[in-house]
Amino acid sequence: MAGEELSKIRDILVGTQLRALEDRMDQMEKQLQKRSDYVQHEMGRQYERLEQLITSHVSELTDKLATEKAVRAARMEEEQAKTREWIDERVAFLLEAIDDLRTSKSDRRALAKIFSDVAARLEG
């Protein structure tokens, strides 16, 4: 019975302090949970904002890349057209030169025939 009485006395003396301590611990636990929920919510919100920002930047860069690609393709086509024109001019010049050479060769042959005919007449 002495042990039981000692327990009752201890409960009377320290019991109120223990209950107050437990209540305070419960409050602190609730505050901690509330703050944890707030931080988790804020982190989720910040994550979504960051994801939107990254998506926006990626989209912007994709558009810029497509524009740059189109500009370069147009420049390439211009350069190819200029190169084709230059080649066509050179080919035309060469064809004309070849034709001139053929014509001058034909003139030599005609001249040689005339001289042969003149020589034949002179002999005969």
Runs with pLDDT <50, length 5+?
none
Give the topology string: H per helix, E per strand: H
Name the overall outline: rod-shaped
* Helix content estimate: over 70%
User: Total helix count?
Assistant: 1
In this structure, how is the largest beta sheet organized? none
Head-to-tail CA distance between termini: 173 Å
Question: How does this model look, in words?
Answer:
The protein starts with a helix and ends with a helix. The protein has 124 residues and is mostly helical. It contains one helix and no strands. The protein is rod-shaped and about 175 Å long. The mean pLDDT is 88.
Task: List the main descriptive attributes of the protein structure presented here.
124 residues, 1 helix, mainly alpha, 0% strand, rod-shaped
What's a concise summary of this model?
Helix content is 98%, strand content 0%. The protein has 124 residues and is mostly helical. The N and C termini lie far apart (173 Å).
